Amino acid sequence: MEKIIEGLVFRPKEAVTTFFDDRNRVIVYGITGYSYIQKEFVKASGPIAYDIIKNAVKKSAKLFISEIFSKKEKSVWEFIRILNKMGIGKVEVVELNDNGEGYLKLENSFIGEYYRGQSDRAVCDYVIGLLEGGLEVIFERPFLCKEIYCVGKGDSFCEFETRISKGKVEKIDLKGIKEYKGEKTNKWDLLEFDSEEGTVWEGPNRAAIFNSSCIAMIQQEMEKITGPAAYTIIKNGNKVATNIFVKQLIPTFLGINKLITSFMKKKLVEELLKVPNYQGTIHLVIEEADYKKPYFKFRGYNSFLAENYKNKTNRPVCDFISGMIEGAAEIIYPGKHIICVENKCIATGDNYCEFEVKSSF
Question: 114 to each of 84, 109, 128, 193, 261, how far by Cα in Å?
Fold first, then answer.
């Protein structure tokens, strides 16, 4: 296991993480949360969900791959090398011609492994979006990729066919894209990378590196199809994932695996608030705290979701963060039903996001 992933840079004071380019903001996110969201989205909207996910990822991938190759020579081999740093699994070339057409194999697919034979169709549309977007940037021609084998439907590995398709490729304009500043580090104690397997680990939980705009695009497209249910799906997905994550991290933070006593709660909250700073999701600051009730009010800065809405909404959009807070709080306060409400949001024009957390019983 390696402690440093090439290209991944953390700015914990700002809660901004970038990958291979200071303009390419990403988040480190557990595969349980993403997979839950995909499954529930498919349940709510049917097979169209797969196309929506693929197209959102493709659009985002074209942007961040363009950013990376704006400073180096375009190369399909370099593209594959970058993919293998993202935690999506290990990409290997089966056959590939000079035009980018051929077959790519994926071992340990981050989404396929979650389904593991439980689906009647291939499920790695996220990866298809990455491949189509990246190949179109490199070869400047439209690509159509198809998953012909998938672990999610019972195959022993995933394999993708890549073919040039008809049409034109829209050029990506990189003007005006924000370049992130701030004190950098390339190490986070909780993060490990298995280069042989193509997997990223956030403590005991498998994670992957997601482009921040991609998650926001998926949420926006989900909202168009399912309405307000999209926010509930996003919130519950991250709540489930964070619940599992925190439960497994308690021994790491407290050196114990027992009932959390009152005086430990404050320490645990303080330690957990550091995690999203490295994940690159949001910088949370305690505004009010009653550790007994419990009751908390947090201010949030640099929310990756709110940043991608840019005042284009009249409601708070950080349900991903609310789910994270609820999931963590219900482990710290077992037996309590925790509710987190976002009262203010940068996406609606506020200067910061504000989250109010309390127990309903």
Answer: 18, 8, 17, 19, 34
